[in-house]
């Protein structure tokens, strides 16, 4: 009887250890998936301040996301949680992404998906 109780307690303890050690990996994988989805939603053409003649774009390069402004200058992008991005090569310029159709940059510039008609 004592041996059975000891085995049961050991099995429960091992199950607890295994389940608690798996959780961080699951959370990390889920966060990676969410970030990948966010990155994909940003890829495409953008228009600076809604001006069709000022086309910018975000592409998925080998090193991750890359933005190209209307002047042809490029920057690596970092996607943060909460709908924020950072242009790492433009002085850590921050941008707020709204509904995947508007980026409000901290320098006062706005990128939109489509030019106004």
Structure commentary:
With 117 residues, the protein is an alpha+beta fold. The protein has one domain (1-117): Uncharacterised protein family Atu4866 (Lipocalin). 35% of the residues lie in helices and 35% in strands. It is built from one helix and eight strands, in the order H-E-E-E-E-E-E-E-E. It has one helix at residues 2-42, and strands spanning 44-48, 55-61, 64-68, 74-80, 84-87, 93-98, 102-105, 110-112. Strands 1-2-3-4-5-6-7-8 form an eight-stranded antiparallel beta barrel. A hairpin with a 3-residue loop joins strand 6 and strand 7 (102-105). It starts with a helix and ends in a 5-residue tail after the last strand.
Describe the structure concisely.
The chain has one helix at residues 2-42, and strands at residues 44-48, 55-61, 64-68, 74-80, 84-87, 93-98, 102-105, 110-112. The chain starts with a helix and ends in a 5-residue tail after the last strand. With 117 residues, the protein is of the alpha+beta class.
